[in-house]
Amino acid sequence: MGVEHPFDRLNIAVPSDKFIREEVRTVDTGQAPRPTLVDLSASDFRRNLPEALNIYVQAMNYPRGTERSRAPMWTEHTTRRGWQGAAVIVSREGRQHLAGVAYGYRGEAQQWWQEQVRHGMRAGGWPEAQIKNLLSNYFELTELHVRPDEQGQGFGEALLRHLLRNRTEHAVLLSTPEVAGESNRAWHLYRRLGFHDVVRHFTFTGDARPFAVLGRALPLHADDGRHA
Ligand SMILES: CC(C)(COP(=O)(O)OP(=O)(O)OC[C@H]1O[C@@H](n2cnc3c(N)ncnc32)[C@H](O)[C@@H]1OP(=O)(O)O)[C@@H](O)C(=O)NCCC(=O)NCCS
Protein backbone atom coordinates (compact mmCIF):
# COMPACT_ATOMS: atom_id res chain seq x y z
CA MET A 1 0.00 0.00 0.00
CA GLY A 2 1.24 3.49 -0.78
CA VAL A 3 2.01 6.15 1.76
CA GLU A 4 -1.13 8.03 2.73
CA HIS A 5 -1.06 11.60 1.60
CA PRO A 6 -2.96 14.37 3.40
CA PHE A 7 -5.09 14.72 0.29
CA ASP A 8 -6.33 11.16 0.79
CA ARG A 9 -7.85 12.12 4.11
CA LEU A 10 -10.18 14.65 2.52
CA ASN A 11 -13.66 13.92 1.38
CA ILE A 12 -14.12 15.06 -2.16
CA ALA A 13 -17.65 16.27 -2.66
CA VAL A 14 -19.36 16.49 -6.01
CA PRO A 15 -20.21 19.92 -7.38
CA SER A 16 -23.26 21.36 -5.78
CA ASP A 17 -25.27 24.53 -5.72
CA LYS A 18 -25.03 24.38 -1.94
CA PHE A 19 -21.84 25.53 -0.37
CA ILE A 20 -22.02 24.34 3.21
CA ARG A 21 -22.78 20.69 2.70
CA GLU A 22 -24.10 17.97 4.90
CA GLU A 23 -21.08 16.25 6.36
CA VAL A 24 -20.57 12.61 5.46
CA ARG A 25 -20.72 10.95 8.87
CA THR A 26 -18.56 7.96 9.60
CA VAL A 27 -19.93 5.04 11.63
CA ASP A 28 -17.57 6.00 14.44
CA THR A 29 -19.66 8.75 15.97
CA GLY A 30 -16.84 9.75 18.31
CA GLN A 31 -14.82 11.15 15.39
CA ALA A 32 -15.07 14.66 14.07
CA PRO A 33 -16.25 14.75 10.44
CA ARG A 34 -13.41 14.80 7.97
CA PRO A 35 -12.48 17.96 6.13
CA THR A 36 -14.39 18.17 2.87
CA LEU A 37 -13.19 19.57 -0.42
CA VAL A 38 -16.02 21.07 -2.45
CA ASP A 39 -16.27 22.53 -5.90
CA LEU A 40 -17.81 25.97 -5.82
CA SER A 41 -20.29 27.30 -8.30
CA ALA A 42 -19.98 31.02 -8.97
CA SER A 43 -23.05 31.65 -6.81
CA ASP A 44 -21.64 29.50 -3.96
CA PHE A 45 -18.55 31.60 -4.11
CA ARG A 46 -20.31 34.94 -4.16
CA ARG A 47 -22.54 33.92 -1.27
CA ASN A 48 -19.49 33.06 0.82
CA LEU A 49 -17.34 35.95 -0.35
CA PRO A 50 -16.93 37.65 3.06
CA GLU A 51 -15.52 34.48 4.65
CA ALA A 52 -13.30 33.78 1.63
CA LEU A 53 -11.94 37.34 1.68
CA ASN A 54 -11.35 37.09 5.40
CA ILE A 55 -9.12 34.05 4.79
CA TYR A 56 -7.28 35.94 2.06
CA VAL A 57 -6.57 38.97 4.24
CA GLN A 58 -5.37 36.81 7.14
CA ALA A 59 -3.31 34.45 4.99
CA MET A 60 -1.61 37.26 3.06
CA ASN A 61 -1.31 39.44 6.14
CA TYR A 62 -2.93 42.36 4.36
CA PRO A 63 -4.34 45.32 6.31
CA ARG A 64 -7.96 44.98 7.38
CA GLY A 65 -10.17 46.72 4.90
CA THR A 66 -8.41 45.17 1.89
CA GLU A 67 -11.49 42.95 1.60
CA ARG A 68 -13.61 45.92 0.55
CA SER A 69 -11.48 46.76 -2.47
CA ARG A 70 -11.17 43.10 -3.47
CA ALA A 71 -14.84 42.15 -3.25
CA PRO A 72 -15.94 43.70 -6.57
CA MET A 73 -12.88 42.28 -8.32
CA TRP A 74 -13.38 38.74 -7.04
CA THR A 75 -17.07 38.97 -7.95
CA GLU A 76 -16.22 40.06 -11.48
CA HIS A 77 -13.72 37.21 -11.79
CA THR A 78 -16.53 34.67 -11.34
CA THR A 79 -17.95 35.81 -14.68
CA ARG A 80 -14.75 35.07 -16.61
CA ARG A 81 -14.43 32.21 -19.04
CA GLY A 82 -13.35 28.97 -17.43
CA TRP A 83 -13.80 30.25 -13.86
CA GLN A 84 -13.44 27.42 -11.37
CA GLY A 85 -13.38 27.57 -7.59
CA ALA A 86 -13.00 25.14 -4.71
CA ALA A 87 -12.89 25.23 -0.93
CA VAL A 88 -12.02 23.06 2.03
CA ILE A 89 -14.62 23.00 4.78
CA VAL A 90 -13.78 21.78 8.28
CA SER A 91 -15.81 21.20 11.38
CA ARG A 92 -14.37 22.72 14.54
CA GLU A 93 -16.14 22.67 17.88
CA GLY A 94 -19.38 21.72 16.23
CA ARG A 95 -19.26 24.55 13.66
CA GLN A 96 -18.40 24.34 10.01
CA HIS A 97 -16.08 26.90 8.57
CA LEU A 98 -13.99 27.55 5.52
CA ALA A 99 -10.40 26.45 5.99
CA GLY A 100 -9.18 27.27 2.50
CA VAL A 101 -10.32 28.68 -0.78
CA ALA A 102 -8.93 28.79 -4.30
CA TYR A 103 -10.02 29.86 -7.75
CA GLY A 104 -8.77 30.62 -11.21
CA TYR A 105 -9.90 31.02 -14.81
CA ARG A 106 -8.65 30.89 -18.34
CA GLY A 107 -6.21 33.70 -19.06
CA GLU A 108 -7.23 35.99 -21.91
CA ALA A 109 -5.77 38.89 -23.85
CA GLN A 110 -6.76 42.32 -22.45
CA GLN A 111 -6.91 41.03 -18.88
CA TRP A 112 -4.91 43.29 -16.59
CA TRP A 113 -2.89 40.44 -15.10
CA GLN A 114 -1.94 39.05 -18.50
CA GLU A 115 -0.82 42.47 -19.72
CA GLN A 116 1.34 42.88 -16.63
CA VAL A 117 2.90 39.46 -17.09
CA ARG A 118 3.54 40.18 -20.77
CA HIS A 119 5.49 43.32 -19.79
CA GLY A 120 7.40 41.35 -17.21
CA MET A 121 8.27 38.59 -19.68
CA ARG A 122 9.43 41.13 -22.27
CA ALA A 123 11.57 42.91 -19.69
CA GLY A 124 12.95 39.51 -18.69
CA GLY A 125 14.10 38.83 -22.25
CA TRP A 126 11.59 36.17 -23.28
CA PRO A 127 11.38 35.82 -27.07
CA GLU A 128 8.13 37.25 -28.42
CA ALA A 129 7.07 33.95 -29.98
CA GLN A 130 7.38 32.15 -26.64
CA ILE A 131 5.46 34.87 -24.84
CA LYS A 132 2.68 34.58 -27.39
CA ASN A 133 2.67 30.83 -27.16
CA LEU A 134 2.49 30.71 -23.37
CA LEU A 135 -0.03 33.52 -22.96
CA SER A 136 -2.39 32.16 -25.59
CA ASN A 137 -3.31 29.09 -23.60
CA TYR A 138 -3.04 29.00 -19.82
CA PHE A 139 -5.03 28.70 -16.63
CA GLU A 140 -4.47 31.56 -14.21
CA LEU A 141 -4.43 30.30 -10.64
CA THR A 142 -5.65 33.59 -9.26
CA GLU A 143 -6.04 32.90 -5.56
CA LEU A 144 -5.05 30.09 -3.20
CA HIS A 145 -5.30 30.69 0.54
CA VAL A 146 -5.61 28.65 3.69
CA ARG A 147 -6.55 30.10 7.08
CA PRO A 148 -3.36 30.54 9.12
CA ASP A 149 -4.63 28.23 11.88
CA GLU A 150 -5.42 25.53 9.30
CA GLN A 151 -2.19 25.65 7.31
CA GLY A 152 0.27 22.78 7.09
CA GLN A 153 -2.33 20.01 6.74
CA GLY A 154 -2.16 19.60 3.00
CA PHE A 155 -5.28 21.67 2.26
CA GLY A 156 -3.39 24.03 -0.04
CA GLU A 157 -1.98 21.17 -2.06
CA ALA A 158 -5.36 19.46 -2.25
CA LEU A 159 -7.01 22.62 -3.56
CA LEU A 160 -4.29 23.20 -6.11
CA ARG A 161 -4.34 19.65 -7.44
CA HIS A 162 -8.11 19.65 -7.54
CA LEU A 163 -8.34 22.85 -9.56
CA LEU A 164 -5.77 21.64 -12.06
CA ARG A 165 -7.09 18.13 -12.47
CA ASN A 166 -9.41 18.63 -15.42
CA ARG A 167 -8.10 21.81 -16.96
CA THR A 168 -7.70 21.75 -20.70
CA GLU A 169 -5.18 24.61 -20.92
CA HIS A 170 -1.56 23.86 -21.78
CA ALA A 171 -0.09 25.55 -18.71
CA VAL A 172 -0.86 27.09 -15.34
CA LEU A 173 0.50 30.48 -14.25
CA LEU A 174 0.34 32.21 -10.89
CA SER A 175 2.00 35.04 -9.00
CA THR A 176 3.25 34.90 -5.45
CA PRO A 177 5.18 37.36 -3.27
CA GLU A 178 8.96 37.05 -3.35
CA VAL A 179 10.24 35.65 -0.06
CA ALA A 180 13.87 35.40 1.07
CA GLY A 181 15.21 31.96 0.26
CA GLU A 182 11.81 30.93 -1.16
CA SER A 183 11.15 29.90 2.38
CA ASN A 184 7.44 29.76 2.97
CA ARG A 185 4.65 27.28 2.46
CA ALA A 186 3.58 28.67 -0.89
CA TRP A 187 7.06 28.42 -2.39
CA HIS A 188 7.61 24.92 -0.99
CA LEU A 189 4.36 23.79 -2.48
CA TYR A 190 4.88 25.34 -5.90
CA ARG A 191 8.45 24.13 -6.26
CA ARG A 192 7.58 20.60 -5.20
CA LEU A 193 4.78 20.53 -7.75
CA GLY A 194 7.20 21.56 -10.49
CA PHE A 195 6.51 25.26 -10.96
CA HIS A 196 9.32 27.13 -12.77
CA ASP A 197 10.26 30.80 -12.88
CA VAL A 198 8.52 32.86 -15.55
CA VAL A 199 9.31 36.32 -14.18
CA ARG A 200 11.11 37.13 -10.94
CA HIS A 201 11.13 40.26 -8.78
CA PHE A 202 8.31 41.79 -10.73
CA THR A 203 6.31 44.74 -9.41
CA PHE A 204 2.72 44.84 -10.57
CA THR A 205 1.37 48.33 -11.21
CA GLY A 206 -0.02 49.72 -7.97
CA ASP A 207 1.81 47.33 -5.63
CA ALA A 208 5.36 48.08 -4.54
CA ARG A 209 6.16 44.56 -3.35
CA PRO A 210 8.11 42.23 -5.63
CA PHE A 211 6.31 39.17 -6.94
CA ALA A 212 7.35 36.08 -8.82
CA VAL A 213 5.31 34.73 -11.71
CA LEU A 214 5.63 30.95 -11.77
CA GLY A 215 4.26 28.36 -14.15
CA ARG A 216 4.26 24.78 -15.24
CA ALA A 217 2.95 22.75 -18.11
CA LEU A 218 -0.33 20.88 -17.75
CA PRO A 219 -1.47 18.27 -17.10
CA LEU A 220 -0.23 17.85 -13.55
CA HIS A 221 -0.23 14.10 -13.01
CA ALA A 222 -1.38 12.60 -9.73
CA ASP A 223 2.14 11.38 -8.95
CA ASP A 224 3.90 14.64 -9.85
CA GLY A 225 5.45 16.12 -6.73
CA ARG A 226 4.15 13.45 -4.37
CA HIS A 227 6.27 12.86 -1.30
CA ALA A 228 8.27 9.64 -1.65
C1 LIG B 1 0.39 28.65 0.52
C2 LIG B 1 -0.76 27.95 1.18
C3 LIG B 1 -2.02 28.09 0.34
C4 LIG B 1 -0.42 26.46 1.30
O1 LIG B 1 -1.47 25.80 1.97
P1 LIG B 1 -1.16 24.80 3.21
O2 LIG B 1 -2.40 24.04 3.43
O3 LIG B 1 -0.59 25.58 4.33
O4 LIG B 1 -0.01 23.97 2.55
P2 LIG B 1 0.36 22.47 2.65
O5 LIG B 1 -0.06 21.90 3.99
O6 LIG B 1 -0.18 21.83 1.43
O7 LIG B 1 1.97 22.54 2.68
C5 LIG B 1 2.69 23.32 1.81
C6 LIG B 1 4.18 23.16 2.05
O8 LIG B 1 4.64 24.05 3.07
C7 LIG B 1 5.59 23.36 3.88
N1 LIG B 1 5.69 24.04 5.16
C8 LIG B 1 5.05 23.77 6.30
N2 LIG B 1 5.41 24.67 7.24
C9 LIG B 1 6.29 25.52 6.67
C10 LIG B 1 7.00 26.67 7.13
N3 LIG B 1 6.85 27.13 8.36
N4 LIG B 1 7.82 27.30 6.26
C11 LIG B 1 7.97 26.83 5.00
N5 LIG B 1 7.31 25.76 4.52
C12 LIG B 1 6.48 25.11 5.35
C13 LIG B 1 4.98 22.01 3.95
O9 LIG B 1 5.90 21.07 4.44
C14 LIG B 1 4.62 21.81 2.50
O10 LIG B 1 5.74 21.56 1.71
P3 LIG B 1 6.33 20.12 1.55
O11 LIG B 1 5.15 19.20 1.65
O12 LIG B 1 6.97 20.14 0.23
O13 LIG B 1 7.26 19.94 2.67
C15 LIG B 1 -1.04 28.49 2.59
O14 LIG B 1 0.06 28.22 3.44
C16 LIG B 1 -1.34 29.98 2.60
O15 LIG B 1 -2.49 30.36 2.46
N6 LIG B 1 -0.30 30.81 2.78
C17 LIG B 1 -0.45 32.24 2.87
C18 LIG B 1 -1.03 32.85 1.64
C19 LIG B 1 -0.23 32.52 0.41
O16 LIG B 1 0.98 32.63 0.38
N7 LIG B 1 -0.97 32.09 -0.63
C20 LIG B 1 -0.38 31.82 -1.89
C21 LIG B 1 -0.23 33.12 -2.57
S1 LIG B 1 0.03 32.85 -4.25
Strand ordering within the main sheet: 1-2-3-4-5-6-8-7
Helix content: 25-40%
Radius of gyration: 18 Å
In percent, how much strand structure appears in the residues? 25-35%
CATH class: Alpha Beta
Number of helices: 7
In the CATH hierarchy, what is the architecture at level 2?
3-Layer(aba) Sandwich
What is the string of SSEs from the N terminus onward? EEHHHEEHHEHEHEE
Tally of DSSP β-strands: 8
Ends apart, CA distance between termini: 13 Å
Mean pLDDT: 89
**SS-based class:** alpha+beta
Give the distinct bound molecules. Answer: coenzyme A
What is the general shape? globular
Taking pLDDT < 50 over at least 5 consecutive residues as the criterion, the unreliable ranges are 1-8, 14-30
How many structural domains can be distinguished in the coordinates? 1
Give a quick account of the main beta sheet: strands, pairing sense, barrel closure.
Answer: 8 strands, mixed
Which fold name fills CATH's third level, the topology?
A: Aminopeptidase
| Annotated CATH homologous superfamily | Gcn5-related N-acetyltransferase (GNAT)
Structural description of this entry:
- It is a single chain.
- The protein is of the alpha+beta class.
- The protein has one domain (6-20, 32-217): Gcn5-related N-acetyltransferase (GNAT) (Aminopeptidase, 3-Layer(aba) Sandwich), CATH 3.40.630.30.
- The chain is built from seven helices and eight strands; from the N terminus they run E-E-H-H-H-E-E-H-H-E-H-E-H-E-E.
- It has helices at residues 42-47, 49-60, 66-77, 112-123, 128-135, 155-165, 185-192; strands at 11-12, 36-40, 84-92, 95-106, 139-146, 171-177, 196-202, 211-217.
- An eight-stranded mixed sheet has the order 1-2-3-4-5-6-8-7.
- Strand 7 (196-202) and strand 8 (211-217) form a beta hairpin.
- Helix 2 (49-60) packs across helix 3 (66-77).
- The protein is globular.
- Bound molecules: coenzyme A.
- Residues 59-60, 144-146, 151-157, 174, 176, 183-186, 188-189, 192 line the site of coenzyme A.
- The site of coenzyme A (COA) has 21 residues, from helix 2, strand 5, helix 6, strand 6 and helix 7.
